[in-house]
Amino acid sequence: MRTGILSLSRALSCKPTLLEISGKCKLIGWPLSTSASTTTNSNNSLVVRRNLNIRHSLVPVRSICYSCDHNNPNSKQSTILKISPSHQKPLATPLRGPQPSPMQEAASASSEADRQQPEPQKDGPSLAFESLSPDATGPTILLIHGAFTTGRDWDLVTPYLTSTSSTSTSPSSNSYHILVPDLPGHGRSRTITPFSVSYSAHLLRQLIVNHAHNGIAHVVGHSLGAHVAIRLASQYPEVVSRLLVSGFEVFPTPTGPSSRLSGLLPYAVWTSQRLENCVPRFVVRWLMDGADIRNIDTSFCTLALCRQICEPMSDNEKWPEPWPSPTLVIAAGKAGVLLPTSDHPHDAKRLADIGMQLCPETKAVTHPKMRHPWNRQDPSLFADTVRAWVENRPLPDGFVDL
């Protein structure tokens, strides 16, 4: 199980079910009914008894142990789960009833060690960020940039989100509080290292808690920022309201002879960032349908950062666990003649399918006229799309469901 969010819909298949949670643990989206009851035992633990299969039930956890007689689904013996909250160490007390096998315990321990993240500390590192319109009456929107850029990548979009005037396609008059951070290793946060998706999510959670209105935010992520946004929603759902990601792509893990060349990828990325700056900006704008692409700041685009971003991951690590936030997954649909400027629609669809397991409202769309950096190509449309999604209104014209 991935740290942060636990889906019980797959873990439980027997009846009746007994869920025991020690300490204070927040249950999100628990569909309690007359067939479920809660009590407190002598150890001051919340006990939830439910005689129906549990669906869409989330608990922020560090570890879980459970046992069930899967070979006898009609068994009257209860399934028993003990869950330790994310702010405590995993429970070491033995379970009553059937015990998990040594293989299950070893797998659980390995997964816990690999994925455990520390709780944010007030005296720890903090991401550099800008806070725009902090006195706005609307909620907070967190904008997460992509690889080798900074929060300045959103400077064409933010005026449309902080202004109360409507654009040509958006009837909204809401003004939003905007948080625009620089990710670890990037821009003004270059001294916060190493970069990783999990560490970025950890620091962004701290940013939302400390600076967002009511400690919660709508989250928008582009390209690498889309991966960070999804991890944030998976690990810390209590700080994410609605989610919009664009340009989420997963590249296959090299196997066979090609795996020997994977070590050269950071060098290729490092070189390409510098070669891209040699291309005149008017040529880039022509190739990208007018997208205003900035020169890359090579002062923080180091070989170390390239290695951290290109660090190989297993296929299981590339795809997240389901998360509860309503999510719009967007794939830019316009391919380039000389440059690969479109996104992968099959990745967007698969990501949306994962999110739909816990939130049926999640969906994937594409726009055939938009290229990968469409926040720089058509910032007005991008802002209108964000407004429409966070306000639960129909999307602007041009989007097609995947």
From TrEMBL:
GO terms for molecular function: monoacylglycerol lipase activity. Residues 112-122 have a biased composition (Basic and acidic residues). GO terms for cellular component: membrane. Residues 141-384 form the AB hydrolase-1 domain. Transmembrane segments: none annotated. GO terms for biological process: acylglycerol catabolic process. It comes from the Eukaryota. InterPro entries: AB_hydrolase_1 (IPR000073), AB_hydrolase_fold (IPR029058), AB_hydrolase_sf (IPR050266). SUPFAM superfamilies: alpha/beta-Hydrolases. It holds the Pfam family Abhydrolase_6. Residues 88-131 are annotated as: Disordered. This is AB hydrolase-1 domain-containing protein.
